Known about the structure:
This protein is of the alpha/beta class. The protein has helices spanning 22-33, 47-54, 83-95, 133-146, 150-168, 172-183, 186-192, 196-209, 235-241, 255-258, 281-293, 312-321, 334-341, 371-374, 390-399, 429-435, 453-456; strands at residues 14-18, 37-41, 59-61, 75-78, 100-102, 115-119, 122-126, 219-224, 246-249, 266-269, 272-273, 276-277, 297-302, 325-329, 355-359, 380-384, 407-412, 420-425, 442-446, 469-470.
Amino acid sequence: MDFLPIFVNIRQQPCLVVGGGEVAARKVSLLLKAGAAVTVVSPRLSHELADMLKAGAISHAARDFADADIKQPVLVIAATDNRMVNQHVSELARARGIPVNVVDSPELCSFIMPSIVDRSPMQIAISTGGASPVLARMIRTKLEGCIPAGYGRLAALVDGFREKVKARFTDVNQRRMFWESVLEGSVAERVFAGHEDEAAAELDKAIAAGDARGEFKGEVYLVGAGPGDPDLLTFRALRLMQAADVVVYDRLVAPAIMELVRRDAELIYVGKERDNHTMRQENINQLLVRLAQEGKRVLRLKGGDPFIFGRGGEEIETLAENGVAFQVVPGITAAAGCAAYSGIPLTHRDYSQACVFVTGHLKDGSIDLNWKALAQPNQTVVFYMGLHGAPELCKNMIAHGLPPSTPVALVQKGTTPEHKTIIATLETLVETVRKNDLKPPTLIIVGEVVKLHEKLDWFDPHKPQGRAVKAGQW
């Protein structure tokens, strides 16, 4: 181990930064976050440092470095573009026993600055000992995605209860087991969901009962899985997917996303297809209630966004009526994901100033929509579940004013390895669906923005050159 990782309290302590450029500004920002009293020595300041000076956050000596500057600080950072100056600062600081860091010169440092994951009061420092700062930053980036911002609030909550827990559990092993139960249980989840008051109340009850595992109230996580590409999941969605005891999932959740749920979680499939519903919606609602009342953490996983044609609102209404705790995690809806992966901006100054999402799902053999409002120029209309209703869709859009030549994109299994984009018009849409034997899930995008697909298409796993398939070419 080349360096000893330590955390130093420099709050209200004088710290010196030699240099006034962008690199110096980044170091000053870190020192200020730690509460230091920072003086910058440099003839000139970057815009960021000038703003800090104007705000009264730092002191500034507008001149070159002088030996006398080293007398007072408890910590020194040299960040000039002059190696001789940096080396001189390092030698003076070391001679006086003052910790010194010289940016990008580990051989001149008595300490080095790590990459930091900041979840104050919790902090994680990553260092390669100066061997590869880029690698340290890459590891930090991975950790940023794994550690929710709520861990800082959780650490603060725990800190507020430490003395009470110490008084309740005099044995150190009992305390350790108690805190492990708290940090892995519903108290932590309440904090992550933004309910610190509920978490504190639950922690109080656990302390009084002498067991954090005594009473666990179940909860439902209504999570949007996005359109199919696992990389489009939110950090929060992934965390809850890996924490759930039971996963209740739909047909539109991609297999690659199901691979990411907790391995030992119970899986319950409730998917719906045309004329084939595995479970009625009312029964799904009651299933969620029952599982939560059994004290389980229930992941209700839906494709896209649960509040856009996902019937998520109906499900949480039932949960609320039955006093079941829940939280909602939005997902990238199919319209946004499929359009983006097809190079089709849903709005564009030259083509479309409005965007409408509608369901094309047939009910009693017809689609009950306000066709006059939909068939407007300079507007993009995205039809979810519209494949079987395509003939009526085309007929009504044309009948209410859109030209038969209006561009249409059909996006099948968007954002997945089976992604396929086919371009047609309102006039040729029905025949295009038949010729290409398209099956759900297929999204239909209607509007002049579809013209941009040819120019902006970037994602097509079937074509090495990255160009999309046109009608008649598949």
